[in-house]
Design brief:
Belongs to the acyl-CoA dehydrogenase family. The chain has 399 residues and is α+β, with helices and mostly antiparallel strands. It has twelve helices and seven strands. The two termini are 33 Å apart.
């Protein structure tokens, strides 16, 4: 694995960096205060991203998981890597605005992970949110109670989903539901439900600590009729494979959330170094144990950040090269989510009154960072998944 960013993505990253500084940062505070207001400035930006995606070197949250176990041994740096690197730069600008970007929803990753070829073509260009969490079953995706009952050429969905990112704005919602509660998690499938489908209702938008620019919805499904063709992937219940097919989605999205955390932490680190530039050795010539407390804290955070960045790159590189990356995706997400919280809060602390007021974005980045250690699986869930992979235990053997 090459530890440097692939040169072929440099133009994309330069554009994303400039966008972060010149488009996202200037409107960051505006939409933090105007919660639930749609950032109209993103429409033009989304069109630009669409053009880059069509050219093959773009940033698209629907980065394809591909089929694991391919015998092709050549090294690839593809859409998973470019997406993660682009996300880092965009969240360097604003995490909430990145999550609000049209046609870049996390539901697109679910479609890419398990959809068949016909579905990939049919849902191309849609903006898909992802609805997993339910009241009473937050981190345990296998405990989903929303049902999908076959009725002729349709499925009828009944249930409630909460904390759906872009749930009101997206064109469609990828809904996780069970075909048969008696069969447990093996019967859970994902369905693409277009916006406006009869029986689907936005119940409320949540008021949140951070990422206020992004809408987070609670959605109910009451006798919601969805075409059977909108069930992603294979409709057959495979007891042997169990939940693995649906969970491939997370192998794709967790590195992207890790990338968000890396980008948010990068913004805080750079700002705190700028504030205290006269107190730091720019060439790192001073031995660590001889530096000031302030300098040692910043140097330690830089090391933690670099570790999180490299773990994120590894997880995305494995996805591009069709290697099973469930363990590495969880490691990257756990590390990046945790250190992003630590770095952003420490930067507020070190900057004292400067970091705590709204004249600076440091306090906003600290608030935004908390969700990055929660959604797509909490810190504790990631550690549990890593332990299962390390010990070769199933979910029933290690809870």
């Amino acid at each position: 694995m090459n530890l440097q960013n692939p040169k072929k993505f440099q133009m994309l990253l330069d554009q994303a960096h400039e966008t972060a500084l010149n488009v996202l940062r200037p409107i960051s505070r505006k939409y933090d205060k105007a919660e639930h207001a749609y950032p109209k400035e993103l429409n033009m930006l989304a069109s630009l991203l669409d053009g880059m995606n069509d050219g093959g070197d773009g940033m698209n949250a629907g980065a394809a998981v591909n089929k694991r176990g391919d015998t092709d041994s050549s090294n690839k740096n593809g859409v998973n890597m470019s997406t993660a690197l682009g996300v880092i730069e965009m969240c360097y600008g604003d995490t909430g605005l990145l999550l609000s970007m049209p046609r870049q929803g996390l539901g697109n990753s679910a479609i890419a992970a398990v959809a068949n070829d016909e579905q990939l073509e049919r849902f191309k260009g849609t903006w898909a949110a992802m609805a997993i969490t339910e009241p009473g079953c937050g981190s345990d995706s296998a405990a989903i109670r929303t049902t999908a009952i076959k009725d002729g050429d349709d499925y009828i969905l009944n249930g409630e989903k909460i904390f759906v990112t872009s749930g009101e704005r997206a064109d469609s919602v990828v809904v996780w539901a069970t075909l048969d509660k008696k069969l447990g998690k093996a019967a859970i499938k994902s369905f693409v439900v277009p916006k406006g489908t009869l029986g689907m209702k936005i119940e409320r938008l949540e008021h949140k600590l951070g990422i206020k620019a992004s809408d987070t919805a609670a959605i109910s499904f009451i006798d919601c009729r969805v075409p059977a063709a909108n069930l992603l992937g294979n409709p057959e219940i495979d007891i042997a494979k169990g939940f693995a097919g649906v969970m491939e989605t997370f192998d794709n999205t967790r590195p992207l959330v890790a990338a968000m955390a890396v980008g948010c932490a990068k913004a805080s680190l750079e700002r705190i170094k700028e504030i205290f530039k006269d107190s730091l050795d720019p060439d790192y010539n001073t031995p660590y144990l001889q530096t000031s407390y302030l300098a040692s804290q910043i140097y330690r955070m830089e090391a933690e950040w670099e570790a999180a960045r490299l773990l994120t790159m590894k997880a995305t590189w494995m996805a591009d090269n069709r290697k099973p990356n469930s363990r590495e995706a969880s490691i990257a997400k756990a590390k990046a989510g945790r250190i992003c919280n630590e770095i952003t809060l420490k930067c507020v602390e070190l900057a004292a009154s400067v970091g705590y007021n709204e004249d600076e974005l440091l306090e906003k980045w600290a608030r935004d960072s908390k969700i990055l250690d929660i959604f797509e699986g909490t810190q504790q869930i990631q550690q549990l998944i890593i332990a299962r992979r390390e010990l070769g235990k199933s979910s029933s053997e290690l809870k």
